[in-house]
Structure formats: C-alpha cells, structure tokens
Automatic annotation (TrEMBL):
Molecular functions (GO terms): DNA binding; DNA-binding transcription factor activity
Source species, domain of life: Bacteria
Species of origin: Hungatella hathewayi
SUPFAM superfamilies: GntR ligand-binding domain-like, Winged helix' DNA-binding domain
Organism ancestry: Bacteria, Bacillati, Bacillota, Clostridia, Lachnospirales
Gene3D superfamilies: GntR ligand-binding domain-like, Winged helix-like DNA-binding domain superfamily/Winged helix DNA-binding domain
Keyword tRNA-binding: no
Ranges of residues in domain HTH gntR-type: 9-76
Name the UniProt record assigns to this protein: GntR family transcriptional regulator
Classification via InterPro entries: GntR_C, TF_FadR/GntR_C, Tscrpt_reg_HTH_GntR, WH-like_DNA-bd_sf, WH_DNA-bd_sf
Amino acid sequence: MAGTRRPVTTIKEQVYQIIKEDICNGVYPPGYWLQETDLSAALSVSRSPIREALRQLVADGLVVEYPNRGVFVKEYTQKDIEDIFDLRIILESYAIRRSGQNLTSAYAEKLNAFMDTLIYYHKAADLQNYINADTGLHQLIIELSGNNLVISTYERVYSMVQQFRIYSLTSKERFDESVTEHTNIIQNILSGNAREADRINRTHLELAREKIIVYLNKKNALP
C-alpha cells in the first residue's frame, strides 16, 4: 500500500535480539563474561553493534557493566526474584481484570489453542515445549490488558526470569499442578470470571517464585 513502510531492523537491533535470547535461554548463564571480541567473532559483525547492544541490555537490567572489568550477565538474588514476581503479579492481575473488555473471538480462539497445546505437551512430558507454550500464554494474557505500557513493561520484566523458567517445574507433581492451573485460568477468563482467574494465577505465580528461589538458594550454597 502506498505511503506505508516496513519497519527497518538494524544490525544493532538484530545483535541485541540474538544476545538477549541467548541470555534468556541460558546460553550465557548468570555471571558469564560477555566479551565484545568473542561476540563479534561469533556473530560475524564489528564490535560497534555489539557495544550498542550491550548498552541496551544494561539498560534492560539483563547484564551488568563493571568499570575496568567488563559486562557480565546479571546474577539474581532472592530479593530480585521476589521483586520481579511481585511486579508480574500486579501486571497480570491488571490484565486479567481487563480481559472481559478486550476478549474478542480471535483472543478466545488463541486461549483455547494454548490450552490444547499445554495439555498436549504435558501428556507428552515435553517440558521445554510446555514452557515455551506457558510463556506464550502469559504474554497473551498481558495483551488482553489492551495497555501498551503494561505490555512493554511486562516484556522487560519477564525477560529477567526467562532463564529460570525450567526450575519452577522441576518435579512431576508441580508439572501436573501447573497444567491444571493454566487450564483453570483460561477457562475462567473465557467464562468471564476474572476474579477466579486472577486468584488462580496469583497462586500459580507465587508457587513458581517459590520454586525458583529454592533453586537459587541451593545454587548459591554450592562451594
């Protein structure tokens, strides 16, 4: 159509997304030294877009820059996890309470699709794909807020805990509970019972936070 343009993705933006995804997926674990020369060689780009991408990741809170030492993937404390999940609960609660105003047939179809997908991967005991679907569901719930600021804030907050997702479902019992919780959250949103959906989701996030904190405390206790 005349007068419209596709958004241009710069090399810096591409580099930023690649490094960010690698941090979120655990390729670069907490405490990892992100050296410009290594990243430049790995991504076949100059050091300039690497440097710009690292600055953005510092602003995002995913990495930390220490003078005269370099840039390192952020190491999270129990307080960090508590703060992140407190904010997630606030944002997702707001989105669920607003869902009735924004729940179109298209969104309802997507919610049902996520429910089917989560049940499928749970039955297949496919934890990684289950977690990916879990991520997509919570992002969709945030979209139901209809608030762009909430959506952008959530994206930044969620990125901080993505690398720990798998540790919230380390036991079969918790895996089983999770799929039941997700199913109930979706069904209550679809039926217009936002209060019950919010209650279940809060419990769901509190349990995830607890499991991640247990993992962090065990990891930090190692010599």
